[in-house]
Amino acid sequence: MAGYAGLAALLLTVIVGVAAAQLVSRSTAVDSKALLSLPFLSGSMPQEHALSRFHARWYPMTLVFLAFDVEMLFMYPWVEVVATVGLSAVVEMFIFLGVLLIAVVWAWREGAFRWV
């Protein structure tokens, strides 16, 4: 019976967490009639909802940007330890950059860098 107490506690925690997330979501939701409210920025009336969706062509470029952003996160600490670690750190970084280069070539071939 003691084994089921942990399972029941986990289930209760998940239920309370989902209910709390739903409550927070409903209480902080954006009003769907935002276009009918006052103008923003320079005083002109907005052309579309402030939380409108972006065109799907921007998402591949965003993913490529995030890949290079994560690359920089790995390269900054690498610069600090490359002198102490030696040749193995250099080889590992070139392998990492090679994998990213393969990803960029694939994205280029798939047309992720075409704007129109």
Keyword list:
single chain; 116 residues; 2 domains
Provide an overview of this structure.
The protein has 116 residues and is an all-alpha fold. The chain has 2 domains: 51 residues, no CATH class; 64 residues. α2 packs antiparallel against α3. The longest helix is centred in the middle third of the chain and has 28 residues.
Strand residue content: under 5%
- Rg, Å, rounded: 24 Å
Task: Please identify the structural class as seen in this structure.
Answer: mainly alpha
The helix fraction, in percent, is 55-70%
Oligomer: single chain
Major β-sheet, in short? none
Catalogue the unreliable spans.
Answer: none
Pattern of helices and strands: HHH
Report the average pLDDT across residues.
Answer: 82
Morphology call = flat
Q: Report the span from N to C terminus.
A: 63 Å
How many discrete domains? 2
Give a count of the beta strands, DSSP E runs of length 2 or more. Answer: 0
In DSSP terms (H or I, runs of 4 or more residues), the helix count works out at 3
